[in-house]
């Protein structure tokens, strides 16, 4: 009877904590996206609502790979599918998607813990894990990917063939979200093939629909089932397309591996140690595969910087932490019992409360950054006329699809150069339009400052420093938009 009371009490604590998360969502709801990747997901979803996978409008195809005639979104279509229903109601509703995934993820995680014979109170570590909360306030693919890996893992542990088919369906959709998603579910297929061929067959059958859809999308959009957007970009522009830059460079490999270990050590202290304890084969296989994979690829090394690794790099291994949390609860409970004895439960709740406070601070930081980006976008709208050409150096501030402007992100020197991916020189573009809006701190003469504020840059570095943001409006008297 006491055990049943404890279970009921634990679930009440979980739901009360979930209400705190919902309160964060209400108080700190983002008003705008933060970085370029989110910008691309929104544009791809917007095209999907118009029944298109590409655009033939040069001015709306910036930073899209192109075959010279059409401009394609840069990422797999899964996230576009998830965001499209929200975009029908405007820009701001899209941020509900990650919050919904987190709320439902908590319920699924509680049920997963029961199948793993782990106390449901461990779900608090999932609910209050700062990276999960941070990414649930964004529209990065990585948290949606984590949700579908979680759902697939839960269904995988069932004894029902129907659930095994649905698990395969979840893993197939994860592949539709991100090409490298396979490193997080390959272990389920490998162990099923080894131990239970029937389960493997049902999972394989379930993975075929979305897996085939992804290959078909690549074929229609990029010309080959096995050609992704980045590979297409590299092929079309003659750049190198081998992502495995650390092969033959063991120093870089171990640097990447070290950074990932650090990430798994600091937010939940010692979580990486779970890898060295007794684990299910699936968990060990997926975790080691992910660590090795992300130690080899170029994207890991590009963002291995102390100021960015907590945000940018963490998202790559976000689903990996999902596998470690159940084991981490057992490890943490053991350590707390040795230190605090009969007060270990109170110590556990204190850790969760501290983690929730960190989550609230992160949510507030995201809201502040999103409001900054929204102010920038609104400033552009207020200071330019409809259908103006807008040139800038930061493409995460503006969406053509939601404003009657043609925004371009142009890096380096603008006049006399060509925009990457286009044949039209920038100075020729400038001569064709009446208004050009520059996001720049160069050549202040003959510029009219229309927006200036001291703000914090993106990510956690905003906690430590600020910089001046200035926008300059250029009026081209001779240029008239046709």
Report the mean per-residue pLDDT as an integer.
Answer: 78
Q: What is the count of β-strands?
A: 5
Q: How would you sum up the major sheet?
A: 5 strands, mixed
Give the amount of beta strand, in percent.
Answer: 5-15%
Oligomeric nature of the chains: single chain
Runs in which pLDDT lies below 50 for 5 or more consecutive residues are: 235-241, 411-426, 429-482
Task: Give the neighbour order of strands across the main sheet.
Answer: 2-1-3-5-4
Work out the helix count: 18
CA(first)-CA(last) distance: 79 Å
Evaluate the radius of gyration.
24 Å
Helix vs. strand class: alpha/beta
Structure description:
This protein is 57% helix and 6% strand. It is an alpha/beta fold. The protein has two domains: 2-244 and 266-281 and 319-366, no CATH class; 383-475, no CATH class. A five-stranded mixed beta sheet has the order 2-1-3-5-4, with helices on one face. Helix 7 runs antiparallel to helix 8 (161-177).
Primary descriptors:
482 residues, 18 helices, alpha/beta, globular, five-stranded mixed β-sheet, single chain, 6% strand, disordered C terminus
Topology:
Elements (H helix, E strand, L loop, with lengths): L1 H26 L8 H14 L28 H10 L8 H20 L7 H5 L2 H7 L4 H16 L4 H17 L4 H14 L1 H26 L6 H9 L12 H17 L14 H16 L1 H5 L6 H5 L4 H23 L3 H39 L6 E4 L13 E4 L16 H6 L3 E4 L9 E8 L11 E9 L7
Parallel strand pairs: 1-2, 1-3
Antiparallel strand pairs: 3-5, 4-5
Helix pairs in contact: 1-17, 2-3, 4-6, 4-7, 6-17, 7-8, 7-16, 8-10, 9-10, 9-13, 12-13, 13-16, 16-17
Summarize the structure.
The chain has 482 residues and is of the alpha/beta class.
């Amino acid at each position: 009877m006491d055990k049943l009371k404890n279970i009921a009490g634990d679930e009440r604590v979980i739901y009360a904590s979930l209400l705190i998360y919902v309160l964060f969502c209400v108080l700190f709801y983002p008003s705008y996206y933060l970085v370029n990747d989110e910008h691309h997901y929104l544009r791809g979803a917007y095209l999907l609502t118009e029944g298109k996978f590409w655009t033939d409008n040069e001015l709306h195809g910036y930073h899209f790979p192109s075959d010279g005639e059409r401009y394609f979104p840069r990422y797999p279509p899964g996230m576009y599918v998830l965001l499209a229903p929200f975009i029908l109601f405007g820009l701001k509703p899209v941020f509900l998607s990650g919050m919904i995934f987190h709320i439902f993820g908590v319920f699924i995680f509680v049920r997963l813990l029961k199948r793993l014979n782990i106390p449901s109170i461990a779900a608090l570590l999932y609910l209050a894990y700062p990276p999960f909360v941070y990414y649930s306030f964004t529209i990065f693919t990585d948290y949606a990917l984590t949700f579908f890996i979680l759902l697939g893992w839960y269904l995988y542990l069932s004894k029902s063939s129907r659930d095994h088919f649905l698990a395969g369906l979840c893993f197939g959709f994860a592949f539709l979200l991100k090409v490298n998603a396979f490193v997080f579910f390959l272990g389920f297929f490998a162990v099923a093939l080894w131990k239970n061929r029937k389960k493997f067959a049902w999972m394989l059958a379930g993975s075929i629909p979305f897996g085939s859809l992804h290959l078909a999308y690549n074929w229609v959009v990029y010309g080959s089932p096995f050609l992704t957007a980045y590979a297409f970009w590299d092929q079309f522009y003659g750049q190198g397309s081998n992502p495995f830059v650390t092969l033959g460079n063991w120093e870089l490999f171990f640097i990447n591996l070290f950074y990932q270990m650090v990430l798994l050590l600091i937010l939940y202290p010692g979580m990486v140690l779970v890898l060295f304890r007794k684990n299910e084969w699936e968990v060990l296989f997926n975790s080691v595969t992910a660590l090795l994979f992300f130690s080899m690829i170029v994207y890991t090394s590009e963002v291995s910087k102390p100021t960015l690794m907590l945000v940018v790099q963490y998202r790559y291994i976000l689903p990996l932490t999902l596998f470690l949390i159940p084991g981490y609860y057992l490890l943490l409970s053991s350590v707390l019992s040795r230190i605090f004895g009969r007060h270990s439960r109170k110590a556990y709740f204190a850790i969760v409360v501290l983690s929730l406070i960190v989550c609230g601070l992160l949510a507030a930081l995201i809201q502040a950054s999103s409001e900054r980006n929204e102010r920038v976008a609104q400033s552009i709208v207020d200071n330019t006329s409809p259908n103006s050409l807008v040139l800038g150096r930061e493409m995460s501030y503006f969406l053509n699809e939601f404003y009657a402007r043609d925004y371009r992100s142009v890096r380096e020197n603008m006049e006399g150069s060509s925009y990457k991916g286009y044949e039209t020189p920038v100075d020729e573009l400038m001569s064709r339009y009446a208004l050009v809006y520059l996001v720049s701190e160069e050549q202040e003469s003959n510029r009219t400052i229309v927006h200036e504020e001291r703000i914090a840059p993106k990510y956690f570095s905003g906690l430590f420093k600020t910089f001046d943001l200035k926008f300059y409006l250029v009026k081209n008297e001779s240029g008239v938009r046709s």
